[in-house]
Amino acid sequence: MSLLSLPLKFESMKVHKLNLEDFEDDLYTLVAIHTRLEEYKLAYNLNRYLNLRLSRSKKDLDLNYLHASFAIYEWKDAKHDRNWTLIANKCQREVPRTVSSGTLFHDENQSETIITYLVPEQKKTDYILKIQGIEEDSGEIELVKSIQQIQEIQTCYTLETEKLKSIKNLITS
After folding, report:
1. Mutual angle of helices 39-50 and 140-148, in 10-degree steps
2. Do 27 and 14 form a contact (C-beta atoms < 8 A)?
3. Within a domain: 11
4. What does each C-alpha distance from 87 to 91, 125, 171 come to in angstroms?
5. What is the pTM of this model?
6. What confidence tier does 67 reach under pLDDT thresholds 50, 70, 90?
7. Which of 70, 101, 152, 168 is most buried (most C-beta within 10 Å)?
């Protein structure tokens, strides 16, 4: 007897649709940071100026489809029920340059640098600080002012998450 000939009843089964938005944490703030500091120096300065305890995560954020890996520093503040995540927005990697075999001057050691952005619409942003558990407009202004006190910070500002097309890259972090 084939499966097609079996009487199946699905009338009583309900369809439940799950939206990604149902699982998103609505209470988070994103701060874009522009600086020439290396990630560990920025984490050190944020710890110093904001009284945080950011430390390097054992795992980077690997986006295999982009062939990119982004450094993560994080801290779970149990006292204030907040999660702090500092994540690099840029990934630089060297790849061998493809050269036509018919060229006159062929250098086998040629390579090129490819830059991949976690949030491509924020290409000038070096790092993104994600704070989960902070309520909107409660301390965001003071937070940005405190970060701007760090001498090596060119600028920083809060990001409007509604305008970011690649927000899903940050939700997973």
Report:
1. 120
2. no
3. no
4. 11, 11, 12
5. 0.74
6. confident
7. 70
